[in-house]
Design a protein that fits this description.
This protein is of the alpha+beta class. The chain has one domain: Endonuclease/exonuclease/phosphatase (Deoxyribonuclease I, Chain A, 4-Layer Sandwich), CATH 3.60.10.10. It has four helices and 15 strands. A hairpin with a 4-residue loop joins β9 and β10. α1 (73-87) packs across α2. The longest helix has 15 residues, at 73-87. The chain is globular, with a radius of gyration of 18 Å. Mean pLDDT is 87; it is low at 1-47.
Length: 303
């Protein structure tokens, strides 16, 4: 179960239960790895052009968001590069990333890699907005991002309800035309995110906006959704629309009726997801050692 913290101590990408989302006991999770996935090890081999590996990772890149002790920018850059190399990921969804760190990793990976970035903003009670800067020189602003070995087209943020006062995260989509796959990375607002209306729940509207932005089949979408799966022990299960688990499959979903998954956060909660309408070929959860989130890695068949 998450430790109790004051609002000022909870980092922006972390977990909160407020208002209608009451505090809950620890989610029952699958302790054993699924038979078709692995926790670690070398990237599985696959026929080039037939499978796509997509990862999602909250980098915990903004130190003041309770990310102290999760690694320096250099450590996080190295961890992201290693995640790509060890898993064979050709697309990475990122949350709490810093623009400067993303540029550095892209340069390290080579000129064939591409990025798309959506900056977080902070909105004051007076209606003024500003970007959120990371701590160290050269890191730039914080946001969600796509890191891709393929050209990205039709890049666009998805409109969704955001706090009237407070941190605005967001949803960013792009298309890999070479594979005819639409990608959407999201970072949703946990309870209490709206400083003017701390009891307001935003995740239900944001999840509906996310699902509405993706096509019926050729898509991978997800990220840090800041909510447990919609299972019986989750009192916030109502925020989930039906489509993610009915029209699509989640990376760590064992069957159509299974709504659980392995933890993706050190609190032992699953709050990171990858959904797809394409056939799944594998799923793994990996501790990068440089965040309070684990990376979730999905392989799908593209033809």
């Amino acid at each position: 179960m998450f430790p109790t913290r004051s609002e000022s101590a909870v980092r922006a990408g972390g977990w909160r239960r407020r208002g209608r989302a009451a505090a809950v006991g620890a989610l029952l999770v699958l302790a054993a790895a699924l038979t078709w996935s692995r926790m670690s090890g070398p990237a599985p081999s696959s026929a080039t052009g037939r499978t796509l590996t997509v990862a999602t990772w909250n980098m915990c890149g903004v130190e003041r968001w309770n990310c102290e002790g999760t690694g320096s920018p250099a450590v996080k850059r190295r961890a992201l590069s290693e995640l790509v190399a060890r898993t064979g990921a050709r697309v990475v969804f990122l949350q709490e990333s810093c623009a400067g760190d993303l540029r550095a990793v892209r340069a390290r990976l080579g000129a064939s890699w591409h990025t798309a970035f959506h900056a977080y903003t902070w909105r004051t009670a007076a209606g003024r907005t500003s970007t959120v800067r990371c701590a160290e020189a050269g890191q730039g602003v914080a946001g969600t991002a796509l890191l891709s070995a393929y050209d990205l087209s039709a890049v666009a943020p998805v409109p969704a309800q955001q706090p009237t006062v407070g941190l605005r995260r967001g949803i960013l989509c792009a298309t890999v035309a070479a594979l005819d796959v639409r990608l959407c990375v999201a970072h949703l607002s946990p309870p209490g995110s709206d400083r003017a209306h701390p009891r307001w729940e935003l995740r239900d509207d944001q999840l509906r906006a996310l699902v509405s932005a993706v096509p019926a089949r050729r898509t991978v979408f997800g990220g840090d959704l800041n909510v447990d799966p919609p299972a019986a022990h989750n009192p916030a299960a109502w925020v989930w629309p039906a489509e993610p688990y009915r029209a699509y499959e989640e990376c760590d979903q064992r069957s159509a009726s299974s709504l659980y998954g392995r933890p993706t956060h050190r609190s032992r909660h699953k709050i990171d997801y990858l959904f797809t309408g394409l056939p799944r070929a594998g799923c793994s959860v990996r501790d990068t050692g440089a965040s309070d989130h684990y990376a979730l890695v999905l392989r799908v068949r593209t033809r």
